[in-house]
Amino acid sequence: MSHPDSGSHPVARRRAQRGWSQAELAQRAGIPRTTISAIEGERLTPSVTAALALARALECSVEELFAGGAVLPQSSGPEWAWRPRSEPCRFWEAEVGGRRWLYPVESLALNAILHDGVWRGGVEHEAKADVAEQTLVMACCDPAAGLLAAEYAQASGFRLLVFPRCGGLALDLLKRGVIHVAGLHRSTGEHPNLNLETVRERLGGGYRLLRAARWEEGVALPADDRTRAAGALLRQPHRWALREPGSAARECLDEWSGHRRLPGRVVDAHQAVAQAVRAGWASAGVCVKLAAEEAGLNFLPLRAEALDFCFAEALGRDPRGQALIRLLRSRAYRRLVSELPGYDARETGEMLTA
Q: Is the model's pTM score more than 0.70?
C-alpha cells in the first residue's frame, strides 16, 4: 500500500498530531526540513540514522513509522562506491537511490568540503550524522564544476560532491547507481543529439539531460607557440598530452587527426592536459578553452560541444535534484557561466528526456 500524499505518511500523521510543522520536527530530530519533506512524500528512503532520529523525536519505534506499507530504511551500513586505494582513508557519505555510499576523498580543488569521517582497519570512524541525505553526487570533467558546487551550496543549503571523470566513466557510475548526475559532452554542431543517443544506448530510458553549457574544445599549445591554424600542427613534431580512450576530448583529437597514432602520454582531465603543456613535457593536447586559458596557454579551437548533465527521472522529484535544476535556470548562474572563457549559457537549464 502506498501513500498518495504526504499527509498519509506515518511521519506526517504523527507530526500533525503534535501540531508540529516540518521545520519544527526537523529541529527536534536534527534533520534538514527538505529531508523530512522528501520522506513524507516518499521520494526518499531514510538512512538508519535519520529513521532513528525521527523515531526518537516522535516517541515511537522505527517500525511504527516505516512498516505497514512504507519502505523500511536500509539496515546495513554504507558501502564503498569504489574501494579506496589505501587505509586509513578519509571519506564523504551520500545517499543515492535509497542506499548510503562512502566515497574516498579526492579532488579538493573541486570539493572544498571537510571529510565526513575516516575509514581505518575496516571500521568507520568519526562519521557525521545526517549528511548523506543532504548530498548530491556528480561525476563529470567540467573544469568549472568547483564553481558550480560553490553556487549550489550557497543557493540550496545542500552540498555537491564532484568527481572528475570522463563522460563514459561517469555514465558507468550512474548506471551502477552510485552517483546522481553524470556529465557528458559528445554532442556537436554536426551531431547535436549525440549526448541523448549515447544515454539511450548505454542506459536506456527513464533519464533526463539538463543542458549545462556549450563550450569550445581545441588544442592547447605553449604560450610562445605562434601556430595560427590547427591543421599545421599535424605537419609539426609534437608530443601530445592524450586524454583516455572513451573521453570526448580523445574522440575530438582522433576525428580531427584522422585517427593518426600520435606520440604522447595519457592524462585524465582537461586541467591535466593544460598542466602537461604548461610544464613542458607535452607540447600539445586537446582540452576545453577554460583549462587552457587558466594555464596561460595558447588555444586553437576545433569544435563547439554541448555539456549535459544526465540523471534518472526520479531525481527530478528529489529536493537535491530540484535545487540543481533551479540553479541552472537562474539568471544569476547563467550570467556567471556566460562569463567563463569558451562557455555559452544561452541553452543552460534546458531539459531533454531520454
A: yes
Task: Check if the beta carbon of residue 325 is closer than 8 Å to that of residue 348.
Answer: no
CATH-assigned architecture of domain 79-204+308-341+349-353: 3-Layer(aba) Sandwich (3.40)
The DSSP string of 11-26 is HHHHHHHTT--HHHHH
The 10s digit of each residue's pLDDT in 128-152 is 657 888 999 999 999 999 999 999 9
Please answer whether residues 11 and 3 qualify as being in contact, where contact means their C-beta atoms are separated by less than 8 angstroms.
Answer: no
User: Using an 8 Å Cβ cutoff, are 50 and 35 in contact?
Assistant: yes
Pairing of strands 123-125, 117-120: antiparallel
Q: Which CATH number fits domain 6-66: 1.10.3720.10, 3.90.1150.10, 3.40.50.10240, 1.10.260.40?
A: 1.10.260.40
User: What whole-number distance in Å separates Cα of residue 297 and Cα of residue 274?
Assistant: 8
Residue 216 in contact with residue 289, Cβ under 8 Å? Answer: yes
